[in-house]
Every structure is written in structure tokens, then in C-alpha cells.
Write a structure and sequence with these properties.
Elements lengths: L1 E7 L15 H14 L4 E4 L15 E2 L1 E6 L2 E6 L14 H10 L3 E4 L17 E5 L6 H11 L3 E4 L11 E5 L6 H10 L2 E5 L3 H16 L4
């Protein structure tokens, strides 16, 4: 069994691939350090609409990308994620097909925040409980049953201290990108939750931020 955060970012906020290259691998190393201190076995790096192979600085770091589709965000995790996508260009079906063509799992990210991906008949591999909205757990469990999807967890961390709020327990023998994909598709996954004063404070802050953005 391995416990991994399947939704983290190596860059602050949503900066483009051309901005902030100096802290890309550095951000990953910091996130890995926090993950290990919190008992995690690994993290997936899922920056918005790009993947840089050089950010994979350790065997405990999984490749990924978060695709901004026409209907919301799709997490793509696996051995060979697409390196670049145009935000808002791919519809959900095209994004899932792209993920599968690259040998990756396609996961509905934060389905109850600024997303209508569940309304599309695309062959998703899983649905996410997002670390910024753990209170949506029961609703997501209902959506998972309705659509026949496994549930994974990810923190959606844009800063290292956010890593691990929600993670995914994977029933695998070795932590490899291919093994992670297979576990997700087979349903050998479950979300893991962490709580505490810091996490509860972050949760209140997230709600204020997302309300301000009109995402709730």
C-alpha cells in the first residue's frame, strides 16, 4: 500500500510555463519534503496545462498535468502525460482521449467547483475529493456511485505547506506511474483525510477565496 497526494502544483498560483522556471524543480523538492514529513509516499505534479519532465526530481514524484477543458479541470496522471495543452480548447471527451493515448488516468478534479465534467459522457477513470473542499465528500461519494467511478484524493496544493490535506491510498506493490494508473482504473484506491488546526484554518481561507472568485 502507498499513500500519495495526486494533485499538487510546483508553481505559485497559475503561472505559465514561461514564468518562474527557477522554482519549478525547487517547488517540487519542497513539496516532497513536506509530503514525507506527513507520512506520504509520494506526490503527483499536475501543473495547469503543462508538464515539464525536469520537475520529476525523485522516484516518489509522479508525472501529471491538469488540463483546463471547456467544462472544467481534468487531472491526468501517468507515465507520459501531455507536455502542453491550450486552456479551454479541449472538450472533456477529447481531453480524456488524450490522457488515455498517453497511458494516463483521467480524473475529474474538484467536481463541485467551477466544473460540469460530470455532465459529459466521457470515459473518466476516477473522481476527486479535493483538499480545498473536504466537506464535499458525501456529495462526491454520491456522484461516484451514480457514474461508477473510483474516488481519489488530492490536496490541490499550490504551496508546499498545503500538501497532504487529502491524499490517495493505493493498493499497489511498487510506486510507479504505471502501477498508479492501473490501481486507479481497477478501483484499488481510497481517499485519506488529515485534519488539524492548520488544516481547518486553510479550509476557512479557501472558502473565502473561492467565494470571491465566484467558484462556490
Amino acid at each position: 500500500m502507498f499513500d500519495c497526494d495526486l494533485h499538487t502544483h510546483s508553481r505559485f498560483f497559475h503561472l505559465s510555463p514561461a514564468v518562474g522556471t527557477a522554482y519549478d524543480p525547487f517547488g517540487v523538492r519542497l513539496s516532497l519534503r513536506v509530503a514525507h514529513r506527513r507520512g506520504l509516499d509520494g506526490i503527483a505534479i499536475t501543473n495547469h496545462d503543462f508538464f515539464r519532465p525536469e520537475t520529476i526530481t525523485a522516484d516518489t514524484c509522479l508525472p501529471g498535468i491538469e488540463i483546463s477543458t471547456t467544462a472544467g479541470h481534468l487531472l491526468v496522471v501517468g507515465p507520459d502525460p501531455p507536455t502542453l495543452t491550450e486552456p479551454g480548447e479541449l472538450d472533456p471527451l477529447a481531453a480524456v482521449e488524450l490522457a488515455h493515448d498517453h497511458g494516463c488516468a483521467a480524473i475529474i478534479a474538484h467536481p463541485l467547483r467551477n466544473s460540469t465534467l460530470v455532465d459529459y459522457d466521457a470515459p473518466y477513470d476516477a473522481i476527486e475529493v479535493n483538499g480545498k473542499h473536504p466537506e464535499h465528500r458525501r456529495q462526491i461519494e454520491s456522484l461516484a456511485r451514480e457514474h461508477g467511478l473510483p474516488i481519489v484524493g488530492g490536496s490541490d496544493a499550490h504551496f508546499p505547506f498545503e500538501v497532504g490535506r487529502v491524499s490517495t491510498r493505493l493498493d499497489i506493490d511498487a510506486l510507479t506511474p504505471t502501477a498508479v494508473v492501473e490501481a486507479i482504473r481497477d478501483g484499488r484506491v481510497e481517499p485519506t483525510f488529515r485534519d488539524g488546526r492548520v488544516q481547518r484554518g486553510l479550509h476557512r481561507l479557501y472558502r473565502v477565496i473561492h467565494r470571491g472568485k465566484g467558484h462556490l
